[in-house]
Design goal:
The structure holds two protein chains of two kinds. Helix content of chain A is 27%, strand content 22%. By secondary structure, chain A is an alpha+beta fold. In chain A, helix 3 packs parallel to helix 7, helix 3 runs parallel beside helix 10 and helix 4 packs across helix 10. The radius of gyration of chain A is 26 Å and the shape is globular. In chain B, helix 1 packs parallel to helix 7. Strand 28 of chain A pairs antiparallel with strand 11 of chain B, so a sheet runs across the interface.
């Protein structure tokens, strides 16, 4: 652990004389002012890796309005006066997986999510890759949970009824010299428990991936690379949690905690939300890009989340046959979430990306002009058959990064019933099953101190997925249609999604009556016409199933409604004077 | 719509799509004596015409100014008179080649998944719309971004008003029509923005939809960014040069709640690509001969699926051509023999058909578009070193597709590839 004096010197030398460096709760706290976001980041990174618990970067950037999260517009008292044994804050894949894990016990579990659906932030905006634990630094939490999660994924996906495939990861050398790194590569694989590493000559690479770019210099193949739908997985975790007794509260944001002082430290007694206050025996912080703010509310903030935006481009399904494997490049030095590549998805598209750009606003999901140029130059070239006109859409999401660029998975040292699960960036999706298991274990330890923790005898890890017509044979489809004709009516023609599947998703225990709620569950609007055909029809179906007016149908919750008013309806004509052909007034007819 | 309880499995001609192309094709096939049915994925037939409540349809075909639904109705009456079955709510899952023609795998709520066979297929499935992302409008994904056709459907068919203050990107016909529609329904149209230096739609639409309503048209300007996270809050527009490269520093923010995209139609030919048919990159449709038959014998394409048209009358004409030829093919077969090319030369963006079977019909109907706006243009149709035809046009514009007829007398041996080119004479 570097002394504060040493760190002060480092900062002075780096031109940060006006920045205050302090220590609190064994973490470094930075404050002061800088002129640019880049300097903010520089300061944060400079304080990292010095042996402290984490870096809290409260430096203000002149001219930049500080970020704060929007509380949902809706408020009520639906949670007022209730009690939960465990409250999980954050409905991404991590929070949903943890919630399901907690239902293995006979306890009341609540999952709180401030958006109008699960999986709205990073969990719904990544490329669905299950990584072999190659990139993660050996000995790190990232590596540990990556390896464990990777090994657990087949069974987890099977139990949850979520499609999964293992195409493998092909890592290509851009330069000839790199094949000399094979001993180091094999060593890294051994350290991280990655099995089956196979060295490939350029000819062998071409034989496996015929469309690989011409200048490649061979590489290596990691068979333990998989693909899954990250948003469908998150939904599956959530649905299985609900079927095992958990409750999910959407559009619910934590605005504060009531704490008391104990011999053991502090203890959260009440959770305050826009839906009222409730008591909880345990709070789990899986709040993603806002995890540090939640930690602050609990009085144990020792990290700051800085968002790193990644843009991804999706290609038309017509060209999917041009790619066999997930392809990446070996980049020296390995950057922070840099690299990316081209990957097939489990749903049959090809994804390009992601990019990596530090930005100041955590919920800034806008794509930028430079994104595509970057993707073409750094990723698309890996497969020479891919072209920019095959892109059907692009989007971006923000990684929740601490300045240590590491996972934070630990019970709080200062609040006896608070667990941190923060900084979960890549390989977060891969790590999810393992993180959930570990957090479940930590949770049980805490709960046992104040209650008799009994296992849930009815816990069923298995979830039966609803039918996906496009994945069925023609015979199976025909059979389903005979049972329920709604399966025969195609609404989204690009992805061939039927009305039956849409109503299934709306009627499910975790159904969300919005266009994106349907989209994340059954893929309407994800095809080449990007909702041009199905959107108007979906509006009608959602209104009907949810029993709401057309004007209330939204894309993703309040504020995103589509229709302002109807153009046709009853009009009061009583004040209208009707003139006859000659221009004389007549009585109006009603 | 005629529906059958007991459906024949074998047909001479099956038409996919019941818009103006498909209806015309089916009626023509029936008039040629073929057993024909139509597959339609929507509940009601008529295709895009159902939502085109403005008039101007049928000036050539019927010498009348009809609305879209009225034009469709004329053909639906003809189809009903010929007792042509239209299978509604029926989706084509797959087309494959079979010994006697084609096998179609279809899906419908009542019948489940079922198969039909046809000796000849006429594909008339029209287009989809280009999206905002495809023209590089960056930003988040708020609600309030609509392609013009989708918006038209919501307003005209569903009676929903999804816009209060909007910006329209693209001065193609659909965008112009919607500019007027939105104003008439009480919305504010801040302006129509067009990336090219001239409008993309018909001149009459610029006059009747923008000028007449005082809606400004901004040329050489595009939308680069959308703002808003839940709902559109505004757009950024930017001036561009003649190569559509933005002039940095000319960005302007416009508050609005809706962005309407009218940035082009893309023929919906994904089903055809699964059959291995290549597409002409300039038209988006497969290359065809003078019978509108593709490289796959017995497979015909017409209407907007073949190339994007401006006038519905030409769409129906192409349907008639395809329908007659499909009926002939189904009954008599026809082997293509001497296929020559029809090449778009200097100044010509494309010509349809792209091929002609010189052993077949020599009275040709051809459609072409110029690459640029030219005045006092002279078009030459050349075969080898002979000029077969010369035509003068006071003006040729890319958005205004032209029709040309070549007669058998125009040709002489030896028959060679044809080339269309423009010799422009500037004043």
């Amino acid at each position: 652990m570097h002394s504060l004096k040493k760190i002060r010197k480092l900062f002075d030398r780096a031109g940060f004389k006006e920045i205050e460096v302090a220590e609190k709760h064994k973490a470094i706290f930075l404050s002061g002012n800088v002129d640019h976001w880049d300097r903010y980041l520089e300061a944060g990174y400079l304080a990292a890796g010095k042996g402290y618990r984490g870096v809290v970067n409260d430096i203000q950037v002149r001219g930049l309005i500080p970020d704060s999260f929007t509380v949902p517009s809706h408020s009520d008292k639906s949670l007022e006066g209730r009690h939960f044994h465990a409250a999980v804050v954050g409905g991404g894949v991590i929070g949903a997986a943890i919630t399901r894990e907690l239902t293995r016990w006979q306890i009341d579990v609540a999952l709180l999510e401030k958006e109008n659906d699960l999986s709205r932030h990073a969990s719904g905006r990544n490329n669905g890759i299950i990584h072999p634990a190659f990139a993660a630094p050996p000995g790190s939490l990232k590596a540990r949970y990556n390896t464990l999660g990777n090994r657990m994924f087949t069974q987890e996906a099977q139990e949850l009824g979520v499609p999964l495939a293992w195409p493998g990861l092909l890592v290509v050398f851009p330069s000839r010299m790199m094949h000399m790194l094979m001993p180091l590569i094999r060593r890294r694989a051994r350290q991280n428990g990655v099995r089956g590493v196979e060295y490939l000559t350029p000819e062998q690479v071409r034989a496996r991936e015929p469309n690989i770019y011409n200048k490649q210099q061979g590489g290596f193949f990691l068979p333990e690379g998989g693909i899954v739908s990250p948003y469908k997985l998150t939904m599956a975790y959530g649905e299985n949690a609900i079927s095992n007794g958990a409750q999910v509260f959407l559009q619910t944001a934590v605005i504060g905690f009531d704490l008391i002082k104990n011999q053991g430290g502090n203890r959260i007694v009440r959770v305050n939300t826009n839906r009222g206050s409730f008591t909880a025996d345990l709070v789990i912080n899986a709040a993603g890009i806002w995890a540090d703010q939640l930690a602050e509310m609990a009085g144990d903030r020792f990290y700051t989340i800085h968002p790193r935006r990644g843009a991804i481009a999706i290609l038309d399904k017509k060209v999917t046959h041009l790619l066999k494997y997930n392809i990446g490049q070996l980049l020296i030095p390995a950057g922070k979430s840099k690299g990316g590549g081209v990957t097939p998805t489990i749903d049959g598209n090809i994804l390009l990306g992601p990019t990596a750009e530090e930005i100041p606003h955590r919920e800034d999901f806008a794509t930028r002009t430079e994104d595509l140029a970057y993707i073409y130059q750094h990723q698309m070239f890996l497969n020479k058959a891919l072209r920019s006109d095959q892109v059907i859409t692009y989007f971006s999401g923000n990684r929740a990064c601490t300045f240590d660029e590491e996972f934070v998975i630990e019970p709080s040292s200062y609040v006896e019933n608070f667990i941190h699960v923060a900084g979960i960036q890549s390989p977060g999706l891969t790590a999810a099953p393992a993180i959930a298991r570990e957090v479940g274990r930590l949770a049980a330890e805490i709960l046992k101190k104040t209650m008799a923790l009994l296992p849930n005898a009815h816990f069923n890890p298995c979830r039966k997925p609803l039918p996906v017509m496009s994945a069925l044979s023609f015979e199976e489809r025909s059979r389903l249609i005979k049972e329920n004709p709604a399966y025969g009516k195609i609404v989204c023609r690009c992805e061939t999604v039927s009305e039956g599947e849409i109503t299934d998703s709306l009627r499910s225990p975790l159904g969300v009556a919005s266009l994106d709620g349907v989209k994340q569950r059954v893929r309407t609007g994800m095809g080449r016409c990007q909702g041009g055909f199905c959107t108007p029809r979906l509006v009608d179906i959602v209104a009907r199933e949810a029993g709401i007016n057309i004007e209330k149908v939204s894309k993703s919750g309040p504020g995103s409604e589509l229709v302002f008013k109807k153009t046709k309806g009853l009009v009061d004509y009583s004040s209208v004077k009707i003139l006859s052909e000659g221009g004389k007034e007549e009585e109006s007819h009603d | 719509m005629i529906s059958l309880d007991t459906l024949n499995e074998k047909w001479e001609v099956i038409v996919i799509g019941s818009g103006p192309a498909g209806l015309a094709a089916a009626v023509a096939a029936a008039e040629s004596g073929a057993e024909v049915c139509i597959i339609e994925r929507e509940e009601r037939p008529g295709g895009i015409l159902k939502q085109c409540i403005h008039d101007g349809f049928g000036l050539l075909r019927f010498q009348e100014k009809l609305s879209g639904p009225e034009y469709a109705y004329r053909y639906l009456e003809m189809a009903a008179n010929r007792r042509i079955p239209i299978l509604g709510n029926t989706f084509v899952l797959k087309i494959q080649r079979e010994d006697t023609g084609f096998g179609l795998t279809l899906q419908e709520s009542g019948r489940g998944v079922f198969k039909l066979q046809a000796k000849a297929v006429v594909y008339a499935a029209g287009c989809r719309e280009r999206t905002s992302r495809q023209v590089y409008v960056h930003g988040d994904r708020p609600s309030g971004i609509f392609t013009a056709g989708t918006l038209q459907y919501m307003i005209n068919i569903q009676g929903y008003m999804p816009a209060k203050k909007c910006v329209i990107l693209g001065s193609g016909d659909i965008g112009l029509i919607m500019a007027r529609r939105l104003v008439l329904e009480g919305a504010e149209v801040e302006g129509v923005y067009e990336i090219k230096p001239e409008p993309s739609g018909l001149t009459r639409n610029v006059v009747q939809c923008l000028d007449d309503f005082g809606t400004p048209l901004h040329l050489s300007t595009t939308v680069t960014e959308i703002h808003g996270q839940k709902r559109v809050t505004g757009v950024t527009v930017c001036k561009v040069d003649n190569d559509a490269v933005p002039f940095r520093g000319t960005e302007k923010y416009i508050p609005c709640d809706t962005l309407v995209l009218s940035v082009g139609l893309i023929p919906e030919n994904d089903l055809l690509e699964t059959l291995g048919l290549g597409l002409d990159p300039t038209t988006g449709g497969p290359p065809v001969d003078q019978y509108n038959m593709t490289a796959l014998e017995g497979l015909f394409v017409c209407g907007n699926a073949l190339h994007v048209n401006d006038l519905v009358d030409y769409v129906s004409e192409s349907g008639v051509l395809a329908g007659q030829a499909a009926a002939d093919y189904a009954r008599y077969g026809r082997k293509r023999s001497r296929c020559l090319q029809i090449i778009p030369g200097s100044g010509i963006r494309y010509v349809v058909p792209q091929l002609w079977d010189s052993a077949g019909e020599r009275n040709l109907i051809l459609y072409f578009r110029s690459s640029q706006t030219v005045f006092q243009a002279v078009l030459e149709v050349i075969s080898g070193d002979r000029v077969l035809r010369t035509e003068k046009y006071p003006v040729l514009r890319p958005p205004e597709m032209q029709r040309l007829e070549l007669k058998a007398e125009d040709f002489s041996e030896p028959l060679q590839d044809l080339e269309f080119r423009i010799r422009e004479v500037k004043i």
